């Protein structure tokens, strides 16, 4: 069956953004991801190996497409990262995206990032992104959405940026009224190895008390089957699992299994996990909440079908000019 639209999957990770767009009739014509373990998982599920470093790929080497998808790297903008932002080389990867957008002029640009992108550098980072896309001819929309409002038992806020070539309108999806509970994603049978040791459990409890005495809310998060939702799962979950521990009667709490981590992000049980537990936790912690992407994708396609999305020629934008205007003149764009 002929695809209804085409898209490319940049900074693809394990393909969390790809799944809904493909399910809704799209065809992926190009993907890029440099991390080898992620490539292994991607290949197992989509039967293709993503191209490597996007900074080494020229825009003209990429097939034409309708929608650009990119969950560009979180670390430069994340509260859990180094907070270097555009001062970190990886912080300039957005401008590799913009080069591709400038060359191909896709109908839609769809971006996902951490919530902190909205306030990073006093809001200047988001302003640069908005201005870049606007000067490339796009009408830009952005909003922070929470996974727990879209049927997942996880408190996970992320910012979504949707840009249409021309003046097409767009409405973000409304939260669902679906009630969630952690028990919905838990496996009935699991390996005892996921139960944490006495030593680790004692350490978690001691550190929580220390944090409480310091007046902050840090420490482990303990949840039961009846809990409405968990904390945000992060790429650090493989270390000790402290942000999400599951209660067990008469035992120490346990970590999520990799399959439960996948479910917490909305990945179907048919999604294969061919890597180690350590890599799986990193991958799902870094990935996206699939049901949120699905609802966004539906609205993107509605806007594409009901409104005229432009395709236009324009003089290529000098990304360095925008960078200089916002004080980023010394950065390397790759």
UniProtKB/TrEMBL annotation:
Entry annotated with the keyword Oxidoreductase: no
GO biological process, one term: methylation
SUPFAM superfamilies: S-adenosyl-L-methionine-dependent methyltransferases
PANTHER family linked: TRNA (CYTOSINE(38)-C(5))-METHYLTRANSFERASE
A GO term, aspect molecular function: DNA (cytosine-5-)-methyltransferase activity
Family: Belongs to the class I-like SAM-binding methyltransferase superfamily. C5-methyltransferase family.
Coiled-coil residues: none
Keywords: Methyltransferase, Restriction system, S-adenosyl-L-methionine, Transferase
Protein name: Cytosine-specific methyltransferase
Reactions it catalyzes: a 2'-deoxycytidine in DNA + S-adenosyl-L-methionine = a 5-methyl-2'-deoxycytidine in DNA + S-adenosyl-L-homocysteine + H(+)
């Amino acid at each position: 069956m002929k695809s209804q639209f085409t898209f490319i999957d940049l900074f693809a990770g394990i393909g969390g953004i790809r799944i809904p767009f493909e399910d809704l009739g799209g065809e992926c014509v190009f993907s890029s991801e440099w991390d080898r373990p992620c490539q292994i998982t991607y290949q197992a599920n989509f039967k293709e190996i993503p191209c490597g470093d996007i900074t080494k790929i020229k825009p003209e080497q990429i097939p034409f497409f309708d929608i650009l998808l990119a969950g560009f790297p979180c670390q430069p903008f994340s509260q859990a990262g180094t907070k270097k932002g555009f001062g970190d080389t990886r912080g300039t990867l957005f401008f590799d995206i913009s080069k591709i957008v400038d060359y191909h002029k896709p109908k839609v640009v769809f971006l996902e990032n951490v919530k902190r992108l909205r306030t990073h550098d006093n809001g200047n980072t988001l302003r640069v992104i908005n201005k870049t896309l606007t000067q490339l001819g796009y009408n830009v929309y952005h909003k922070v959405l929470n996974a727990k409002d879209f049927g997942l038992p996880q408190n996970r806020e992320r910012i979504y940026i949707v840009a249409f070539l021309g003046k097409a309108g767009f409405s973000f999806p409304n939260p669902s009224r679906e009630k969630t509970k952690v028990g919905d994603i838990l496996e009935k049978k699991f390996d005892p190895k996921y139960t944490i040791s006495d030593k680790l459990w004692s350490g978690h409890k001691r550190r929580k008390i220390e944090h409480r005495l310091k007046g902050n809310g840090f420490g482990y998060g303990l949840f039961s089957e009846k809990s409405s939702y968990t904390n945000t799962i992060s790429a650090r979950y493989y270390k000790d699992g402290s942000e999400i521990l599951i209660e067990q009667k008469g035992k120490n709490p346990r970590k999520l299994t990799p399959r439960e981590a996948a479910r917490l992000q909305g990945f179907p049980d048919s999604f294969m996990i061919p890597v180690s537990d350590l890599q799986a936790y990193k991958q799902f912690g870094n990935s996206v909440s699939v049901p949120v992407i699905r609802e966004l994708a539906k609205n993107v396609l509605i806007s594409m079908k009901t409104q005229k999305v432009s395709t236009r020629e324009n003089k290529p934008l000098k990304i360095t000019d925008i960078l200089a205007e916002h004080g980023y003149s010394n950065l390397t764009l790759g």
